[in-house]
Each structure stands twice: as C-alpha cells, then as structure tokens.
Amino acid sequence: MPRIPLPRTRGSRLAAVAAVVLVAAAAATVWATRDRGPAPVRTQDAFVSMPAGPGSPDQVRIDTTTYYPEHTPAPAVLLAHGFGGDKSSVDPQARELAQRGFVVLAWSARGFGRSTGKIGLNDPDGEVADARRLVDRLAASHDVATGSDGAPEIGVTGASYGGSLSLLLAGTDHRVRALAPVITYNDLGQALVPNAAAATAPSAKTPAAGAFSPDGVFKKSWAGIFFSAGSGAAAASTPSTEAPEAGQPTSDTGGTAGNSGGTAPQAAAPSAAARAERPSADPCGRFTAAVCKAYEELATTGKASPETVALLHRVSPSSVTGKITAPTLLVQGESDTLFGLDQSDATARQITAAGGSVRTIWYTGGHDGGVPGPQLRAKIGDFLWSSLTGQGDPGHGFSYDVQGTLRANGTPSVRTVNAAAYPGLAGAGTERKQVALTGPAQPIVRPAGANPAAVSGIPGLNGLASGTSRLAPLFSSDPPGQAAQFGTAPFDSQLVLSGSSTVRLQVATDPAHPQPEAVLFAKLYDVGQDGTRVLPANTVAPFRVTGLPADGMPVDVTVTLPGVVRPIDSGHSLRLVVGTTDQAYSVPTQPAVFRVGLAPGAALAVPVVPGASVGAPLPVGQLIGIGATLLVAIAVVVIAAIRRRRAHDVDPELAGTPLVIKGLRKQYAGGFTAVADLSFRVEPGQVLGLLGPNGAGKTTTLRMLMGLITPTAGEIRVFGHRITPGAPVLSRIGSFVEGSGFLPHLSGKANLELYWAATGRPAEKAHFTEALEIAGLGDAVHRRVKTYSQGMRQRLAIAQAMLGLPELMVLDEPTNGLDPPQIHQMREVLQRYAATGRTVVVSSHLLAEVEQTCSHVVVMHRGRLVASGEVGELAASSGEATFRVGDPAAAAATLKSVGGVSDVETEGDLVHANLDGLPRADAVAALVRAGVAVEQAGPRRRLEDAFLQLVGEDS
C-alpha cells in the first residue's frame, strides 16, 4: 500500500486535522439534513366539455389533470401553461405545488395539446370562460378546502400566456382569492405594438412606468415566433384515447419537480401530441379568424387598425385589472424583451387603484433569461398558501435582483434588494437622479429597405450576452450613420439603475425630403472605462413621432426607455443611442433623413430604488451544511496561504514586454493535459511562430492567452498585466483565434466599420486606412464580402484584428485554406505589420511559412516546450551542412566515404550532407585532400529537419 505523506510541521498537522474534522462535520450535517423524499402525489386525468362560444351549439374538449396532495381537503391552485405549451409543460411545477399541500388543476388551453378549439389569446368568451368552469369544478370538489366564510380556497398562477389568464380570470371571477402571475403582460397591444414617446413626461410615480402611447411600432420578431407556435399546430380532432373519468387515479408517484416548472415562457414548438397532428393548409392554423386577421394586418402594414387595437385590449388583463381586489403577487423578469417591467408596473398601479393589495418581485430571468428558480418558486408557493389559508408569511414589500457585471467561474454575482414597498403606489414616488447628457443634434439616415438594420438583440437568446462585454457586440450593434449618440460623464460612484429612465428629445425631418412621421429606436448603453459597451437586457424603446413639420422645425417628445436593473459602476458612463432601424421591429422601408437632438435643458432621469441588499435565503439545513463547508474552505485557504503568496495583477518590470508565459498548464476533466509547464517570452518587434504538430497544444495556449479559457496553473502576462477572462489589457491585443464572421451582403469596409462601432470605441481610433493598407485589399474593400475569395476573407480578418493597431497581434493558423499565392500575400501582410514596430504571434503547422515569416520560433510537442529561439539558430541545429564546390559529383563521393556522414545529396553546385557530429572543418579537409575546390561551407538552415529531430518523424 502506498504511503500517504503527512505534513511535517506541528502547525501544518494541526491545520490538516482541523480540516478533516470540519469535513466530517459537514458530511454529517448534510446527511442529517438530507431530503427525505417528496410527499406522494396522486393524479387524475379528465376531458371536460365546454361551449365553443356564446350561443354556439358546438363543444370544445379541454384536457385536464388534477394533482392531489397527501392530505385533503386542501387549498387549490389553477396552474395555466405558457403559449405553445400544454398541461405537460407545467407538470413539474404542478407536482411541486401538490407536494407543498395544494390541490392543483392543470389543463391544456384551447388549441394546445389534446384540447380542441381555436386559440383566442385568452378571449373572455373562450379561454377565460373555460377557466371559470374549471373553478366551478374545484368549488364543487370535496378535496378543496373552504375558508371560515364557507368559500373555497382557490388561487391561480401561470407564466406569460398563463399569467395573463391568471389576471383575466381573477378580474372576472370573485372566487379567485389569490393570484401570482409571472412574466406576463398588462396590455397586449402595448407589448406587441409599443410606443415609448409622449408629448409630456409620464405622470406615474412608479419606477418602471411606460409611456403606453398609441400608434406604436410592431414587434415583428417576437410576434412572429408566437404566431408560428400557434399556426403550426393543426386543428385538433377528438382524441383517440379517452381520459379516465373523474375519481379514477392514474398514478401515484413521489417524483420531484424540475426547475423548469410552469413558469417557462412557452414560445417553443407545441407538444408532441400537437406535433403528431399534421397542420392543414390554412395559414391561420389553430388561431381564431379574428386573431389571424389582426396578425396579418400587423405583419403586412406594421400598424394596428382600430379594430385590432380593440381586439388586443379585449384579451388584455388591462381590461379587467380595475376589478381585481384579491391579494396579488406580480413576478416579472429583468431580462425580457417581450414583456418588460413596464407591463408589471401598469398592472400594479391598476390593481392598487381598485383596492387590491399588490406585492412585486423582479428577478434576473424572463423570456430572455430563464424561469424562476427553486427559491423564487418557494416564495410563490408561500404567498399562495398564506393568502388562501391565512397561515405563514406571504412576504412583504418590493424586491429586485441586481446582477453584477463581475463573474465568478462564468456565473454573474446576484444580490437581492428589498424595499419597504413598490414606490409610487402610495405615498412618495420613485427617486429619479437627473444625469446630464451632452451631444449636438445629429442627422441620421434610414437606408432604403431599412437595411442593414441595427441589432438590439435576438429574441429568447439575449440572456447569453447579459452582463458581459465579450458577447455584447454579437447581440447589439448600430450601423454607422443610422444613429445619434449622446453621453454622460463617467460616474464617480456606483449607480443602480432600477426601472425606466426618461429623456426629452427633439426630432425633425429633412426639409429636402420631408417625412410626416419618424419611427425611431432609443437604447441606453453602459459604457466601460475602456470604451466597451453593453446594452442592459438588450432592451430598446421603439417610438413613433407624428406630425413632423415639412420645414424641418423640431418636435419635442419625452421618450421612456425600457425598464432595466443595472449597476453602473464607478468610472462607467451612459450613452443614449437613437437609431432609425432595428431588425426586431417593423420599420418603414422608404429612405429618409431625420435630425435628432436633446431638448434644451434635457437630462436623463434615472430611477433609483433604495433598499437593503441581502443574499438569497436558503433552508436552515443547507445553511448549516454550507457554513461547515465554508469553514473547511477557510482552513484550506489558510494552509494554502502559508505555502504561497498571491501573484500581483501587474508586474511593473514587464510593462514593456508584450508577452510572458510562465509555468502554463491546462488539464481537462478525465486527466487529459493539453498544455504542461509551458514557459516563454516574446519581446517587442518580434514575429514569433508557435510551431507544433496537430494536437501540440498551440490553439489551447492561444485561447488561454485571449482569456477564453482559464489555465489550470501558471500565468500569462501581457505588458505586465496578468491575463484573466475579461481583463482590460485584452483591449491591447488584436486577435484571430476563434475564426471570423462577416455579413456577406456588406462590403469589407462596412463590415470593419460595423465591427468597430460595436466595440463602442471612437471611430478616429480605428485606423481603418492603416489596417486596410497593411492588409492590401485595394479597391476590393468596397465590394461585398460574398464576392471575396478565401484569401481575401483571411486578409479582411487580419485587417479586423489590426483595427486600432494593437500592440500585440495573435493569429491562429491565418493561412488555413489558402493557395500558395495567397499564402505569399498573407506573409507580406504580416511582415508589413511587424515593420510598424509591433509584435505578432502566429500559430502554424506550416514549417516553410514559419521559416520565411517569423523571426523567432517556439516549438511545442504534446503540450510541452521542446525548443525556442531565433529561426536561423534553430534551423542550424539540425546537424546538416552545405558545401559550394567546383566538382559536386566528386565532392559527394568523397563525403560518402567519410565515416558517419549520411544523407548526401547534390543541388547544382551545392552538396548537402548530414555530418552526424563530424566537425565541418574535418569535412572540408577531406574534400581538399580529394582535390575538390571548396568555395563555401556552412550549416544547412532548414527548419523542417530541426523540427523533425525535435518532435519525431511520427508526428
């Protein structure tokens, strides 16, 4: 048995013993507080027949499942699903609520799953009427508890489409005694056709009040996703398999609920049952004729007629919120470009005005950012239980999550801020800080066809970019010439933006080509000290300004920006961007020019909601276990601190050195080591080739250099700064490591300008002319990229890496896919760039190119450094020599007769030979004795031979 080494010093032994004791204590605590398993849940499926509509003899069949807790009677909850889903979508959350003690009734709404009928978007005579009849069933059930007044204890919850149903049901059925709508809308017309402009500032005192002005801009991307989810499902026929009648249990399980719950925004494909039924040729699919007509109008014209406005209002919770008095918990997502914080804000004001009690929670998810996690779902369950039974704590006040900009292991930090109440519902309104904006009035162009269009985000995927500047350019960009920009001074302390900011603008048309109205888009960027910018939650405020005077006189409007929660760190600033296009919205296609400026004395009014910051609550058992684990971690940290010191982030002695790699190691799960103990440095002005066979670890090294992956050990320093993910010094590096992506319909120059604009740095710092001159694209830079050859694309990628003339440029296999002439051109590009005095690191497996392009080389093999130095020195180390002689044939014969000499070959008047350790002078002497005239003798500088000696022929 191998001997386990023990600490040698008494202090180290005591620390180790303490750590072992703490680990044992933590394990015992976790075992003692472990989950004993969920309570059993009994389910019952049934189809329920409903009238198709008022006065209609037809029936629709609604597929339901009732979940029964271990003990009944119990309070009941109707659980509605999201759009595109069905009752199976909310099965995990239904089981979770049943295990808490609720009777839960879930169902597939009309047109979804195995339920028949047409989708009416929660029509009061359709889906809402169905829900009232389901309340009838619960009220008549002996399994549902009643309160002291004899009324059944019934609540309702759901997310998105289901959240709207919750509000509409509570506003039309007084038997609903509590409701918890999640990430839903107040006014579907304002959610899908928003207008953020108003003649005067909003009168509401709440933090996220929207303008809710008429004649808005159609949100075509999100609307198209939802219409597709409904129109792709065929009209359902009678199910082939009947569900059991009421009272016949179908399962008895203790399965736990998953995290997706019923709060997931169901904007995805329909259920398997729905997909199995093939769609008909009707483009309206399962939608009612009225809904289909409204969508076709919006999709083709971009505007809503009075009839469409009336329809959207009829199916919106805003039509009934003035009648809701039941206790209400509003849960809204901070990462939601579909239903923003303004929707929840309006609902809170309307229910409060009706005399209802409202509690509001903003959390970091949403349609773009994810569903509520276990802790938030527990708060929803606690609220419903307390509101229905009078037992427990329903929670109080207003809370919102603040997601930090710093990340630990890829996960952003989140803290919760608790305020006594939602500001503006009663008493004093929201505090708004007036922040000065600067910038002149600017002309902005709407191109013909509104193309290319600005990018504010990608519906459903915006959460990927949240809080990080690395991905932000992929999700938000503003084409040059299409946007006016106004900025604030850097903040001297952190400001937590909590809601909807407002600003007063002036908009005018171009008198030479007057337009009666302008469709514009306002965004508020968080700009870092290095110039990088992030669009919080990828939100944009579309607004329409009508009645523009033809003589170019400006019109004053107040624009309400989207509600967000964003910590603006010290040293950061805010940048207001007002553009003419956005790919997510319907934009007029005729070309136009507008002039946008700040109204006199205008300032950015930023909402701030003070409160107490707290961490997320955890169960007591978990707290004890985590506490013990923390003690273990502290002990480990103390022991580690004795053995080593933390490295400084900046080494002043290396401030002038482009790159230093020391003891670098990258080991993956399973023990595979890609890079092991790698150390080398690159000096200013060098062109260093990182050489090695496939699998040597070159790309892994470059990915660590760019902060894309984290080393297991060792460090990388660039100009003295230690490289970590997102390190500011990365802005001094130009790179071509992950491959490049260009928009094929744009010219090369437009692609470069768009890329640079996305970084948020000033255009004058791009050095477009110098980069393009070095790349050598000539007039081709004005052609569309789709016409480029592979070599031209590679050179454009190099030009992109050169923008800003970075002091260090890192390129991974830049000649891949190029033919010999293109490789020659690429070599010239790199040599011209190095001639400017900057430093280049090139990874390649093409030995000849490294030999001709690079001044220095680092050779890697199986993750390790095997050689480094000047290219000439390394090539000369192969042991081969070259002789220029008068009689090559005689010289070759003479050398072959010398013992140990091998691989003799002639090339014109040159003779090459491997001397195998024989001194070159001895070889020359042998040639002279044989009567061969030797004009020149020296090493044969061939990098290939040295490389093969270092890594082996089999590589």
From TrEMBL:
User: What are the protein's UniProt keywords?
Assistant: ATP-binding, Hydrolase, Membrane, Nucleotide-binding, Transmembrane, Transmembrane helix, Transport
Q: Which Pfam family name is an example for this entry?
A: PepX_C
Occurrences of domain ABC transporter (ranges): 659-887
Record's compositionally biased regions (Low complexity) = 234-254, 262-274
Give the residue spans that cross the bilayer. Answer: 623-642
What organism, scientifically named, is this protein from?
A: Amycolatopsis echigonensis
Per the record, the similarity remark reads: Belongs to the ABC transporter superfamily.
Q: What is this protein called?
A: ABC-2 type transport system ATP-binding protein
Output the PANTHER family linked to this UniProt entry: ABC TRANSPORTER, ATP-BINDING PROTEIN (PTHR43335:SF4)
Against InterPro entries, the record matches this protein to: AAA+_ATPase (IPR003593), AB_hydrolase_fold (IPR029058), ABC_transporter-like_ATP-bd (IPR003439), ABC_transporter-like_CS (IPR017871), Galactose-bd-like_sf (IPR008979), P-loop_NTPase (IPR027417), Xaa-Pro-like_dom (IPR000383), Xaa-Pro_dipept_C (IPR013736)
Q: What's an example of a GO molecular-function annotation for this chain?
A: ATP binding
Listed Gene3D superfamilies: alpha/beta hydrolase, Galactose-binding domain-like, P-loop containing nucleotide triphosphate hydrolases
| Coiled coil segments of this chain | none
Q: Where is this region: Disordered?
A: 234-281
